[in-house]
Amino acid sequence: MKIxxxxxxxxxxxxxxxxxxxxxxxxxxxALPKDAEKISEDTFKLRPSKDPGTGETVEAFAFVxxxxxxxxxxxxxxxxxxxxxxxxxxxxxxxxxxxxxxxxVVNATNSSSLTQNFIFNTLNSDISxxxxxxxxVLGNGVGVNVIGDGTTTSSALLADTVSPDNVNEVYFxxxxxxxxxxxxxxWGIFSGPxxxxxxxxxxxxxxxxxxxxxxxxxxxxxxxxxxxxxxxxSFGMNDLYTSFxxxxxxxxxxxxxxxxxxxxxxxxxxxxxxxx
Length: 276
Known about the structure:
The protein contains 4 helices and 11 strands. The strands form 2 sheets. Strands 1, 2, 3, 4, 5, 6, 7, 8 and 11 form a 9-stranded mixed β-sheet that branches. It is 21% helix and 22% strand. α2 packs across α3. The protein has one domain: 3-Layer(aba) Sandwich (Collagenase (Catalytic Domain)). The protein is of the alpha/beta class and 276 residues long. The radius of gyration is 17 Å and the shape is globular.
């Protein structure tokens, strides 16, 4: 674990200094690989690859966050979900979670004139909310440090769909599907004994096709509302699709002008508390 952490930090520092050569900006919009396996309406499993830090075989899930009007969102069952809002949570891939703390980087350049400081501070704040809730009490400032410190960059970033690169990345860009708001890709070991399961990388891309807002403006996507949901995936949380859980942050649909996901709810808090 320590060896991988130091390797990740070294790669991250090198990336910040010299830029990421393999992530050259392209005119091609982001798209999942053709062989991505669709395992639910908005979740895809990518082909296994090797972790460059450890040589271990890893897999990835891609969460594709779509825009919808809530009245049009289908009400679907959520497995054995009990009739209690406190049970409105789920984990990706057999409960794989973080076992060490890693840094992350964001290129805040966007087409909606949101400032770099706003983007960075919002991501930091949303990460802190999830971490604060790990003890089951939101707002007391006590919790587990799960996601590491962030840094801004002007270097081109690229969400990794073929293999991880030991850099946790956030950026705005073009996405092939015009109905997609954002995509989060989470790499890890998702099978085998529980002690072997772990997360090793997360990447996020937010679509420049949308007008983004810092204050819940009508007709725009609120960045805080979407970001805190996407970061839930980075922690290892799964989407929720049953209408009974529609008020929770990890509910899988979002709409223009929506701001109700900017705070964690009972199911979100209970889930992250039991997880970490």
